[in-house]
Amino acid sequence: MIVISVGIVGGTGYTGVELLRLLLRHPNVEVKALTSRTEAGRRVDDMFPSLRGHTDLQFSDLSIDLLKSCDVVFFATPHGVAMKHAEELVAANTKVIDLAADFRLQNLDQFEKWYGMQHACPDVLKDSVYGLSELNRDKIKQANVIGNPGCYPTTVQLGLAPVLKSAEALVKPESIIIDAKSGVSGAGRKASLGMIYSENADNFKAYGVAGHRHHPEIVEALENISGQKGVFDHILFVPHLVPMIRGMLSTIYVDLTEAGQAADLQALYEQFYVNEQFVDVMPAGSSPETRSVRGANELRIALYKPQPTKLVILVAQDNLVKGAAGQAVQNMNLMFGFAENAGLQNIALLP
Amino acid sequence: MIVISVGIVGGTGYTGVELLRLLLRHPNVEVKALTSRTEAGRRVDDMFPSLRGHTDLQFSDLSIDLLKSCDVVFFATPHGVAMKHAEELVAANTKVIDLAADFRLQNLDQFEKWYGMQHACPDVLKDSVYGLSELNRDKIKQANVIGNPGCYPTTVQLGLAPVLKSAEALVKPESIIIDAKSGVSGAGRKASLGMIYSENADNFKAYGVAGHRHHPEIVEALENISGQKGVFDHILFVPHLVPMIRGMLSTIYVDLTEAGQAADLQALYEQFYVNEQFVDVMPAGSSPETRSVRGANELRIALYKPQPTKLVILVAQDNLVKGAAGQAVQNMNLMFGFAENAGLQNIALLP
Amino acid sequence: MIVISVGIVGGTGYTGVELLRLLLRHPNVEVKALTSRTEAGRRVDDMFPSLRGHTDLQFSDLSIDLLKSCDVVFFATPHGVAMKHAEELVAANTKVIDLAADFRLQNLDQFEKWYGMQHACPDVLKDSVYGLSELNRDKIKQANVIGNPGCYPTTVQLGLAPVLKSAEALVKPESIIIDAKSGVSGAGRKASLGMIYSENADNFKAYGVAGHRHHPEIVEALENISGQKGVFDHILFVPHLVPMIRGMLSTIYVDLTEAGQAADLQALYEQFYVNEQFVDVMPAGSSPETRSVRGANELRIALYKPQPTKLVILVAQDNLVKGAAGQAVQNMNLMFGFAENAGLQNIALLP
Amino acid sequence: MIVISVGIVGGTGYTGVELLRLLLRHPNVEVKALTSRTEAGRRVDDMFPSLRGHTDLQFSDLSIDLLKSCDVVFFATPHGVAMKHAEELVAANTKVIDLAADFRLQNLDQFEKWYGMQHACPDVLKDSVYGLSELNRDKIKQANVIGNPGCYPTTVQLGLAPVLKSAEALVKPESIIIDAKSGVSGAGRKASLGMIYSENADNFKAYGVAGHRHHPEIVEALENISGQKGVFDHILFVPHLVPMIRGMLSTIYVDLTEAGQAADLQALYEQFYVNEQFVDVMPAGSSPETRSVRGANELRIALYKPQPTKLVILVAQDNLVKGAAGQAVQNMNLMFGFAENAGLQNIALLP
C-alpha cells in the first residue's frame, strides 16, 4: 500500500485538529510534520486530548525544509500564509492544499478587496485548481495547488450545479437568494469576545449582511459552473449563526424559468449526483438535518417547489468536514490516486 | 387602582406559564382561575417550581361559570377550544383572548383546510379582532374577542407594515420571501419524540417547507395591512428550528420598486414606529439578536439593502412574549384601558 | 419615595449588565454613573442591546468625584479595584458594594495567597461586612462597605447554615464535600480561548480541583457561621462547568452525627428559613432545577438522606442573581432601608 | 477474514443506532437482522438519515428463527426482553449481548426490586458474564451471554478498580461517594415530557437521589472487584442531568487509608491500565472533558488528592460508546477472537 508523508501547517485550529482526526486514521497517510507558530515543542494531544492514544506528534516550528520533504502540505492557517510558501513547495514537488482563501479567487481585485492584502504568487494562483471535488475532479487530479472551497460556497455550488449546468435555462440566475446558517465552529478557534459561550448559546442572529467574503467566491464559482458571466453579481447571501458547534444549512431560493417549472427537478438532481458517494439527494419531502452529517464527509440536498415558479433547495453539511477538512482530504485522495473515500468512511454521529 | 379578575384556560403549556409569569406581577390583575383538563387540584407551582413563592393557585377543572365570573379569559389551549366557549363568555360580558388560531383567520375555508375542523362560531369570529397590537390598536380597545397572532406572523407584519402601508408602492408584494427561525419552545410543551433534547440540540433544520399553518395567516394579514388582495398568495414562508429555548428571527427578502430603491427606508421605519415602545428600529448596520429580547415584550428590526433592488428585513422577538403571551397581555391592557406597558416592563435577560 | 443615586464601576461585564437590568427597574434608584476603562463615551445599550429603550446612559471614565456624588457605588470589576477607592468613597459618605473579592476574606494571608496581591486598605476591610444577606442582615444594615459573597460560597453557606447553627452538633464538619456545578457566565465576559462556544457546548468537566479561590472564602464563612475554627480546613470543594449560560447547583455531602441522624432536618430547614422570601426549602423529594431560578433572586434547597448517616443537600441559584448582582441589590436594599425585595420581584424565566 | 452475522433487536433507540454506526463499519461483521416491534418494513436510514448511503437494511419483526441464524444478537431493548429469548438463542449456538439490565445483577432479589419483574431465566443468568471488558476479559472470551454494564457503573468500576484490587487496603470502601453527571441521551429515545428540549436546555439538576437502579449494580460490581462483601452497601451515588447530548463524568470521592495516603496512586493507576488501549490515565493535573471521548470507545481518568486523606477520581466517557454500544462491540470482539479494537478505532469528534 502506498503511504505518503503529509505536513499540516497551523494545527491548532479546528480545521487543523479535524484534519488530524481524519488523517491519523487514513490508510495511505503518515502525518510527518505539524507546525504552529506558538506551540512548538508541545505534544498535540496535550492541546487536544481527543487525540491521546492516537499520536505522539509534537508541534514544530514552520520549517520549509521539513515541509518540502512531505508529499503534500495542508495549510490550516489564516488567509495569506499558504501563498507565501506555495511556490517553493511546488518547486520541490510538494503539493499544496490550502484550506484558507489564498487560492479560491482568480479575480485578484476581489481577493485584495475582501482579504485586505495583495496576492503573493499570482502565477501559482493561475495554475491552482479550485477544489470543489465533485465539480472539478479531473483538474484536481492533475493539480499541484488546491484552493479548498469555503464552507458556505460548497453548499451553494453543490446545491445549484444541477440546474446551472443543465442544457436548458431552468432558473433565473439573478434571482438567487442564499439564506445560510452555520454552527459556531465556522468562526474558528480563537479568543474573541463575540465567540464566547454566553454570547452565543440560546441565541440566533444574522451577520455579515452588508457583505461577506464568501460572496465573491460564490459569484466566481457560479460563473464557472454555469459558464455565464455577470448574471450572479446581485445575488443575495445572508449568513446566520446557530448555537451549535458543527453544521451548516443553506436554504437557497431561486425563480424558475418556464422550462424549470416544467422540469422534473428531483429526477434531474438524483441523476446528476447518481455516482457521487458524498452527495445525497434525499427523497421528495425530506428535510436534511445538520446532525445527519455530523462528523461525516457528506452533503445532503432536498428540493421543494412550494410555489409553481419558485424552487427551494436545502443543503446540509458539516462545515468542518465536507465544508473544510473532509473535502481537503477528498481532494488529496484524488491528487494521489487513492480511493476517493479513503479515510472518509465514518458514519455521522447521531445523536 | 383598578384590578380585574383573570382566567387562564390551559395553564400547563409554555404560553400558560408565560402568562402567569407576566400576570402574577401585573398591577391591575388578579388571576382568579387556572384550568387544566389533566391537572385539576394540583398546585401550579408544583408543576412549575419557578412560581414557588409567587402564587398559591391550583389548577381547576374548566368551569364555565367560574370563567364567566372573570373579566377576561385567556385561552392558552390547542386550536379549537376557545371557539367552543367564546359566545357564552361574551354573552356574560367576559372578554376572550385566544392564543391559539380560532380567531386569527376570517377566511373560513382556510381555517378548515389548515386546522382540520369547522369553525364553531362564525358570527363571533366576524366580530372578533386580530390582536396585532400596534396595527389594530383602536379596534382592540373595543373588542370582546381577540385572536392573538401567531408568532411568525407577528414578525412578518411588523417587519413589513411600514413599506406596505406607504402611500407609494415601495416593494413588489409577490416577491416576498420569509426565511424564519424559531426556538424549540414554539412547538409547545408536549411529549413528542421530535421535541426531545437529543433530537434537537446541536442540530438545525427546516420544517414545514411544503406548507405551514402560518402561511394563510400571513397572507390574510398582509392583505389587510396593504389593502391589496391576491398579491401575496405566492409568497414563500420557510420556517426552521434553532437549538435554543426561546427566540425567533425572521429574515425577510423583498424586491424594491424604483420608488423603494429611491426611498430612505431607514427613516421611514423609524418614523413609522416612533411612538411604539415595544418595536425597536435599530440603527443602520445593526443585527438584532434573539437574546436581546429574551423574556421581554419587544421586537427589534434592522434593515439592509445589500443590493440596489433588494431589501432585507431582520426581525427578532421572543416567541413566547411578543410572539404570544406578552402580546396577549398588551392586548388586555388596551382592552381595559391600562397603561399599555403595565406588567410588560421587564428588561430582557442577557446573557 | 426616596430615590438614591447609584454608580456602577465596570459596567461591561456580566455582573455589570445584570446590575443594570435590576437597577434600571428599581423604584428607589437612579443610576447616575457607569464607568468603563475602555468604553467611555459609548452608549451602554450599544454594547448591550437588551437595554435599548430602557436607558440613555453612556459609559464614562472612572471619576472619583462623580462616584463620591453617588449614595452607593457597586464595583463590578476585577479583584483589586474596589479596595483602591473604598476609603475615599467612605470618607465622602458614599457606600461601597464590591462584587469582587476585595472584602470577602478577613484573613489577609489567604487573600494575598489566592489573589496574588496585597490588600490596599486593611482597616476598611476590618470594618466591612460580608454581604450574605440572610445571615448577616443586621450588620449589613449598618455597613459602609460590603464584600458581596462569591457565587459558590453563597450556595454552601445557605445550604449548611441550618445544621451548622443548630445548638446541637448535627453534622461532622470535617466530612463536608461540595460538588459544585456552574454555568459558563460565572467565568465572566472576556475573550478567552477556554470560554468560547465550541470549547464548552456539549461538554462537561471539572476545573480547579487542586484549589479554587472560593475554598478559603467557604472555610472562613463556615467558621463564622458555626463559631468553630479549624474544623473546615480539609473540606473538599470541586467545581464543574456546565454547558449552560446561567445557573449553579451545589451538591453537598456531609456525615451526620447521631443527633443529626435522629433530627427532623426537613423541619429544621423549613423553620430556619420560614421568614426568608429568597430562600426556598422545597418539599421532601424535590430536586431544585437551575432553570427554576433563572433570572430570579432566589435560592432553592432540597434535602435527602439516602443513607442513614449521610445528608445530601442540593442548592440551586442563578449565579448572576442571588450569586452576584441580585444579592448585591438585596444588600443595598438593607443598607438604605428599602423593602428587601425592591427591584427583585421578577419571576424566573421558565422555560 | 472472518465475517460473522449479527442481529440487533430494538434498533430504534440510541444504543441501537449507535451499534449500527459501529457495526456497519466493522471489518468482521455483517448486520443481518434488525428488528423493531413498531417499524417493521421501514428502512432504517429513513428513521436515521445519518445512515443514508451506508446500509439498505430494513427493520423486521422479531423472528426468533432469523435471530437464531445469527452468530450473535445484541439486545438494545428495554429491560426484560433479552431474558425471554436468551435460552433459546444460546441453545441454537447464538451468542447474546444484552445492553439492558437482564444480565447485570446476579442478585435476583435486587433485580426484582429495582426492575419490577421476576427474572425469566435464572440459570442462563448464572452462566452469563458481566461484560466490563477490561476487568472480566477472560470470562467474556468464553461467554455465551453477556450483561453489558450500565453506563454509570462502567465509570465507577474502572475508576475504582486499581485501588480496590490493590493487595493493600488503600481506600475506605464505605466512604465512597459518586457524584455522577450524564448527557441527556442516557435517558434514551422516547417521547417523554421530561426529556424535551425546552425542559433540559440551559438547565442542570440532580435526579434519582433517593435511589437509582445503577446503585445495586455498582455495589455488586465493587464487591466482585474487591472480593469484599457488605462494605459498599452505604456508598452514595447521586446522578445529575447535563444539558448535552452525549457524555458522562463521574466525580468519585473516597477516603484514603494510611497506606493509601502514602502510596503513589498516579503510578498505580498508570501501571494498572498500562496495556489497556481504551482506558487512559491522564497526567497529574489533567481534567478529562467529556468531549475528548465524544463518539469514541474511550474512558479517561484523572486523580487528585486535594486533601491528604481524600482521593478525587474523575472519570469521563461517552455514555453511548464505552458506556453502552462501544463496550458491547468490544465484548463481541473478545467473544469471537477479533482484534479488541476492531471497529472501535474512531477518534473522538472534537470540537
Helix fraction of chain A?
Answer: 25-40%
Q: Please, what is the CATH homologous superfamily of the largest domain in chain A?
A: Dihydrodipicolinate Reductase, domain 2
Total beta strands of chain A: 13
The tally of domains of chain A stands at: 2
Strand order of the largest sheet of chain A: 8-9-7-10-13-12-11
What is the terminal-to-terminal distance of chain A? 35 Å
Give a quick account of the main beta sheet of chain A: strands, pairing sense, barrel closure.
7 strands, mixed
Oligomer: homotetramer
Indicate the CATH class of the largest domain in chain A: Alpha Beta
Mean pLDDT of chain A, rounded to whole units?
Answer: 97
Estimate the strand proportion of chain A: 15-25%
Basic shape of chain A:
globular
Question: Would you identify the regions of chain A where 5 or more consecutive residues have pLDDT less than 50?
Answer: none
Q: Determine the most extensive contact between two protein chains.
A: C-D, 47 and 47 residues
- Rounded to an integer in angstroms, the radius of gyration calculated over CA atoms of chain A is 20 Å
CATH fold type of the largest domain in chain A: Dihydrodipicolinate Reductase, domain 2
